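Cellulose synthase-like protein structure dump, as promised
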Amino acid sequence: MGISEESNTEPLYEKIWVKYTLSRVMDSIILILLVLLLCYRVFSYDDMNHHSYPWFLAFMCESWFTFTWLTIISTKWNPSYTKSYPHRLFSRVAELPSVDLFVTTADPVLEPPIITVNTVLSLLALDYPSNKLSCYVSDDGCSPLNLYALVEASKFAKLWVPFCKKYNVKTRAPFRYFDSNNNEATAPNNSPEFMQEWLAIKDGYEHLCSKIQNATKKSIMLDQEFHVFSTTQLNNHPTIIKTRVSGLMTNAPYILNVDCDMHVNNPEIVQHALCVLMDPNSDKEVAFVQCPQQFYDGLKDDPFGNQLVTIFVYIGGGVSGIQGIYYVGTNCFHRRKVLYGLSPHHHIQNGNKDLGKSSKKDIIFGSSEEFVESAAQALEGKKTFTQNANLCNSLEAAKEVAASGYEHGTDWGNKVGWMYGSSAEDILTGLTMHTKGWRSESCVTDPIAFMGCTAQDSVVQMAQYQRWGSGLLEIFFSKNCPIFGTIFGKLQFRQCLAYIWVTTWALRSVPETCYALLPAYCIITNSYFLPKDLGVLIPAALLVAFNISTLLEYLKTGLSMRSWWNNLRMSRITAMNPWIFSFVTILLKKLRIHDYAFVVTKKELPINEGLDKNNVNAGGRFIFNKSLVFVPGTTILLLQLTALIINFFGWQPKARSGGQGSGFGELICSIYVVLFYLPFLKGLFRKGKYGIPLSTICKSMGLALLFVHLSMFIV
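structure tokens r here:
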């Protein structure tokens, strides 16, 4: 609980602990069954004879599953959440601090400007003093279209922001507010004055959308303020300052960063977050406040398993009860001084003495005198910043700091700012802060703080999970490995286990794929990997307990049974398809054979007015293309179908040495895998984008035939 040192002062926030007793019991039962299964395999190994290979492989896979489940139990054991009291903030603080708002975008095609515009407008309309907010848009794509859209949006903001605050509009993103499904648009106010303003604002927004849409279809005239874009290239262009670099312009003590698609859904979210960050006890404890991700365009029953509801409730809540929730790259409030490398118990005066040394400051923050001065003020925790009176000088200094070469030879990306070295820089940055001893807090409000868009098809979903898997595994195999953070830093042991769980996603591809292949292998070779006689009750009970446990978690969070199955299915598909390529990608990078590039996730345009989101993409059907990411899954499916056909027609060879062969257990497991890959099975018979391409099928058939051939020699 964040309690002030003053005895009569009420806390700005409380930490509420939750006990999921049934969840603990079920998780413990699953762990006990996993350990029993491992013990059974160890004591039965000498009796396996010619079945030792599948038995040993099953043992290795189940050992990994046991370790993974142990990290999950440790993470989920003591869940918590914070309850903030914004109304107390105003009585405790004489003047609210400034907050810098950062919006990041990288590609105007994959991330349409109208999405970024809505996010920016929602931020500008926050219920917070306007003179205390500064919004910055970072465009890695160097797009004149994005700048044009923002220039036009700034004009509309002069109408939109006052309208929102005058009528206490709850939905501050225009495209959501004017959606025909939004009852807020006209229900609270029926006065002639309101309706007149509402119509004017709606016309203004439609005009804004029309101008941006027209600019998308034709080239923007690169004259006047857009002239600087006439000679630019995506990966090679001079620094362009149309927004301002915050360290030199405003230097607010707190920073909110959001992805371009994450608009504000709760206009009071800044006050909620500041309740945590401004509590007297949290100044030397809490580095950042993370708000959960939720999505306005999620398809019914989550067919692609990407809405992450239960992960935020159980894993996110669980890790919040240890050293703090992960930083997930968006919807997060940071302390600037922590981003500048400050440790929880660092002595500010010593830090300033270090900054006084020319060589030291150049190594840490670079050669800009203006920026070093602003950094010193941020580290001291000053709420105000002495700005350069000459705007031209500030812009020149900002261009120097924003240049790509400025950070060379400095601590940027290593000890200062967002961390480099992984495409999962968000997790790495949070891990670095936790390793220094900082905590973090989650901020769950009603209504939810931010809403964004999620992947609408399987192709985008696979690419996203492959990128996440690669970046996370790269952290695990680096000097920033959470194990080192516990041994040499201040990362708590259970927090270390929580980070191991997330950074080893791609490693799971190996045991999960091997385990999925075991039923087919055993049926084809007439061997077995499951216990016989009464021993088979252990894996059977394990399967039942796991399904019941996960189902109860989904039902408790208000999700449907269909949603549970879709997520269960997608967790297997993800592990055996994109994460395989994540594992191979990092392996090739560590061997210095091939590096990988950052892939921007496609953001869909806001759903058109009157369009039922459940009908988008024909209800969430799988889409396939010629990408290699669909080859492993297609191969696994073909192998299971081959094994089932062999079993049905009795084409199995005789069990060697007169021993027992595959049985009912292996048959059930093979059918179970086919059920997971039902979207792939349907894709074999569909055409167009919903069908698996012939080239992918041919590659998978070749791999399946090779597997069957080799299986005859490895038993």
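Residues 106-244 form one domain.
lmk if u need the other ones
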